[in-house]
Amino acid sequence: MPLRDRLEDDRSANDRTSKHMVGHWRQRLLEEINLDELARLTLEQRRTRLEKVTDLLVTREGPVLAADERANLIKRVVDEALGLGVLEPLLDDPDVTEIMVNGPDAVFVERFGRVQRLDGGFASEDQLYQTIDRIVAKVNRRVDHSSPMVDARLPTGERVNVVIPPLSLAGPVLTIRRFPRAYTIEELVGMRSLDEATGMLLAAFVRARLNLVIAGGTGTGKTTMLNALSAFVPGGERIITIEDSAELRLKQEHVIPLEARPANIEGKGAITIRDLVRNALRMRPDRIIVGEVRGGETLDMLQAMNTGHDGSLVTVHANSTDDTVHRLQTLASMSDVKLPYEAISAQISSAIDVVVQLSRGPDGSRRLAEVAVVESARGDLVLHRVMHFEAEPVGADRVVRGVFTPHPLPAALAEKLFYAGEGIPPAFAPRAGAPGGGMAGGGPATRRFSP
């Protein structure tokens, strides 16, 4: 093509690297390369080879582009030919925690707790289907009209959910949840997710082998908090982690991670969280950490906590500490072992020591909302609040501000920490001479659950 014609065909930067242009050069690339030769190369060699061929094609046939536009075009063409297309730069962006594709033209991402729509998209619905096929093929799964939903985990750890027509009326829908790096308690304190005194108290709870439930809604940071607290488990203990999708990243040496397995194409071979919890009890664990309970395995977990597996940690979906107790009661009743309400409440009150409640503000910030101690009083299950976040009214900037308010620890829990050799931060010191740390009875920091 003469230079004059190439200059006349030149458009804006967006047009020159648009999804239609990328699709054109991807097709030209596939026509130019030798697939048999490419199959013998490693992944890195394939990418290098395709970049060179694309560069040659654009030089010979393409429009005149600035250096950065040219590099961006070549990268997008190779990404679509070899990788996950428009998703590749999003997966490389450490600030992106969620990728949501609602059809080929609607791509959304979550950054810093806020959802935003991207300008670009897939070249076509066929290109989106090809990307989905590449994702599910990596984990030996398939998605088609006979199996229009699939959950999978990429080799790099991202959790993937796919829904296609006829279930989805918006076309193929792809959701990729990415897991940020593991944060320490000190880093979470620096991010104002909790205060230093509460961080010290939670660390003492873990070292003293108290059983903790970490609760919160979707995207409130339950796994992040679980990762941070697990750092305080002594290194010499045998820890078994159980998850639907492996997200925990424990630093201890003696860790056995277990992951549930979905059914295969024939609907057979599923291994559930409950199966893994039961099996873990035969593996001589010092502590069991369950990524999330959502069914009958809740009762098995409670029984494990009541039979010598102190110091266990688990997460559950709930919007408040009160809801956490009710949800645990409901989930435990879903077991094939039918127990009366009173028996389940007794199991919870004897198994669970502390509920750590997380929340997510309208500005996208995630923080500790409440810490409550579980106690039993005259047959009733009682929640004792020992910390809560007192939010200020949200201003025009929509930023959540407030203070972490401590309360004295119940005397029984303070005594348990004392005999475990753990100190109590001064902000949480029990009140001298008052039963239960000066908070017994029906005050605002105490909630009672009667059968």
Automatic annotation (TrEMBL):
Note the Pfam families from the entry: T2SSE (PF00437)
Say which domain of life the source belongs to. Bacteria
Per UniProt, residues of the Bacterial type II secretion system protein E domain are 83-360
Output the InterPro entries linked to this UniProt entry: P-loop_NTPase (IPR027417), T2SS/T4SS_dom (IPR001482), T4SS_GSP_E_ATPase (IPR050921)
Would you indicate the residue range of the signal peptide?
none
Q: Which family would the database say this protein is a member of?
A: Belongs to the GSP E family.
This one is known as CpaF family protein
